[in-house]
Amino acid sequence: MSEPITLRGITWDHPRGYAPLLASAEAYGRDHPVRITWDKRSLKDFGDADLRELAAAYDLLVIDHPHAGVAAASGALMPFDEFIAADQLAAFAQDSLGPSFASYRFGGHTWALPVDAACQVAVTRPDLLPAEALPHTWEEVSALAKQLRANGQFVGMALCPTDAMCSFLTLCAQNGARFADDASALASPARIEHSLRQLRTLAGVCHPDCLSCNPIAVFEAMSKGAPIAYAPLLFGYTNYARPGYRPHRLRFAAIPGASRALLGGAGLAVSSHCQHPSVAAAYAAFVCGSEFQKSGYVTAGGQPASLAAWENPQADEIAGGFFTQTRTTIQQASVRPRAAYWPQFQEWLGECIHRFLTEAESPETTAAVILKAHHACALERHR
Hints:
The chain has a 5-stranded mixed sheet with strand order 2-1-3-11-6, sandwiched between helices. Strands 8-9-7-10 form a 4-stranded mixed sheet. It is of the alpha/beta class. The protein is globular and about 70 Å long. The protein has 2 domains: 5-118 and 264-331, D-Maltodextrin-Binding Protein, domain 2; 120-262 and 341-381, Periplasmic binding protein-like II (D-Maltodextrin-Binding Protein, domain 2, 3-Layer(aba) Sandwich). It contains 16 helices and 11 strands. It has helices spanning 15-31, 43-48, 51-57, 68-74, 86-94, 138-150, 161-174, 189-205, 215-223, 277-288, 290-299, 307-310, 313-318, 322-331, 342-358, 363-381, and strands spanning 5-12, 34-41, 60-63, 105-106, 109-110, 113-116, 120-124, 154-155, 228-235, 251-253, 266-270. The protein is 46% helix and 13% strand. It starts with a strand and ends with a helix. This is Extracellular solute-binding protein. InterPro entries: Bact_solute-bd_prot1 (IPR050490), SBP (IPR006059).
């Protein structure tokens, strides 16, 4: 008997990111002569690490959708349309939750299949804040924060550079300040300034540790008993809605304002350096297919991207109602630019926004710096 084909994959370091992939490798390996191993990288590296370097080292990559343009420009990934029939890709598109599938298409090709769907959502500790007390506007969030502080409790946020940038982009989307893929359209300075003011106000009323937190840190604190009753903008993690996962079970809800929450999630891609691309693509189709997504993927702690999984009552029960609580929000989510310049620009933008929140720079000055840098980056990549 010949040795099985071995594929190496890289995902991100959280049970939601790797546990369902380990389960999928075991399930797929039972029926196919393929051995799949998975390594992990940090949440920050998931968003910011160089796609080309990862593709040189791994066969399978779990990626963020803004890297689709880098994939198209660099040739680091294999387009799925070369290995999967058009009708099968159409079925993935039909089964996509919100813009998940479309977010991995760029330049006429599909660079990843959606394996995990997420967006920014609100979260609460139901024992500290009942559902009827949830805020629906940003003004109500500030008022709630003041009420909670009087009782020794807090509103939480994730405001490390990466997540400060993500919350800023959600506010921009709500305010009609769109960052385009190219330099032909600039967002309104006044709307950028307004979004910055909103974010600074939120930072000023939330828990003092939030400027160093990512979503996982906030979820861990809330679910383990920290006096954080509510957080308005965090990328949702189904794990924390599940019974028994942590001492305090969390409940999720729509964000305040006019929706347009920033899309997160993850796509499963095949490296152009992979020696067995058709095998890797077939495995990816299995993991991202609705049958495994609504069964083994959810059971192993995953957050699927399949609409069929999100609409499945048994899957929703396993996930503690998370899918019902957040499905409408993700169906209306906003997508970040995917041009090749964006991943590097968004890393810079995170540092810029974080500096704005920690120093005394005016919204007008920061908005001007952001727009100038965005125009220069977009223009440079299109020359």
